[in-house]
Amino acid sequence: MAVSDAHARLEPGSFRDPGNRVFHRRGEVLRGLDERSARDWRALAASDFFRELLAAGKVCGTEELLPAPVDLPWATVLRHERIPFVSHPYEWSYGMLRDAALLHLEVLRSAVAAGFTTKDGSAYNLQWRGATPVFIDVGSFEPARDGEPWAGYRQFCQTLLYPLLLQAHLGLDFQPWLRSRIDGIEPDQMRRLFSGTRRLRPGVLTHVHLHGAMQARHGHASTSDVRAQLRAAGYSRDLVLATVRGLEKLVRRLDVRPGESHWSDYQRTCAYSVPDRRAKERFVDRAAAVTVPGLALDLGANDGRYARIAARHADHVVAVEQDPTVVDGFYRALRDERERRILPLVMDLADPSPGGGWRGVERAGFAGRARADLVLALALVHHLAIGRNVPLAEVLDLFAGLTAPGGTLVVEFVHPEDPMARRLLANKPDGLFPDYRRKVFETLLAARGRILRRVELPSGTRTLYQVVTGG
User: Fold this and answer.
1) Is the dihedral of CA 444, 446, 451, 456 positive or negative?
2) Whole-angstrom distance between the N-terminal and C-terminal Cα of the chain?
3) This prediction's pTM
4) pLDDT tens profile 298-344
């Protein structure tokens, strides 16, 4: 169904349910519902369980527009709160995915107990307010029908449970698996990974092998036939609840504590002296205070020291770090503090999240989502330019492209003679980086913005720059 208002923009990731569609108009996030979905919504809005979830902040803020806009082709239009930054499950740490799964199950358990269910179980139904997950797919709720199983079970397994099993039982980071397929990990793939005695590990026999066998058995049967068979077998709401509670118990058992990694103790082992660190903190704090950003990005955030400084002045901060172990430790600290302004994400900036799904736009790439008033790129240039062989001009194009016009870029240049840069250069052929020089860097930087401040750290081998982008 098309949206007629010229000011409305359809959300590319919202088309799989023909009964409702998310779109944007005049800065608002709206959801159009057809007649059937509108009836489901009114039943949902009248229920106690939904009002309780809204009040607790576990479901995104939602209200019906009354009267319904006459210029839009929907029976009913809802208005949702705007999530500060849209992220994807393959950008989350293990703890984030696990907490998102637990919230999904809590929402479902409350719904089933009240006579409702959800049409799907995708990890993409969840987003974040800082370090707090929130369920966003209000259009997924519908009244439950007797004798029918949870329709979202397969999606839940493929996008939430299987990635958790993969990392908890095999020690494999789940992010590349989820990034490669929007629909998640297929049961057949999991069965191959969990053969032999591995099938006896918690959750594997029931949710991988038995699930896969049931899919194979009923693969050619119609949905209505399967439902009829389940009703005849006495399938009930109590069995759905038992399944949900069993999944909750399993997911809680699958907790994996952050371990050690190359970057997990960076602040202790890096080359910074105490005077360098203090000077750097003052520089970042001043830049953030002057900018007063709505959204700030901390690129290569490590343990989040500078993301926290930016959060003193910003409405929201997205802290991007390549190491999943570091991000998980940072996330758990933020969660324990109930921090709602800082969102940590797992991402390799030399290979950032691309567009994905249908036509490559169903899930927007990182560059399409991230346009910030303040961008921090601290101790990062040398890792991209030397460690990953990215030309300096390309590195600065990345930073400038993520900064809103007229926004502030804070960038650190690590001189070739710095111990960290020398360590990286030692692993490269001689003469491979003739342009990695401070003068070249400053010329390239000046071409992308106006340098407001320049401070050399006390060590003498690192320089900080504050730049206004776009001229």
Assistant:
1) positive
2) 42
3) 0.93
4) 999 999 999 999 999 999 999 999 999 999 999 999 999 999 999 99
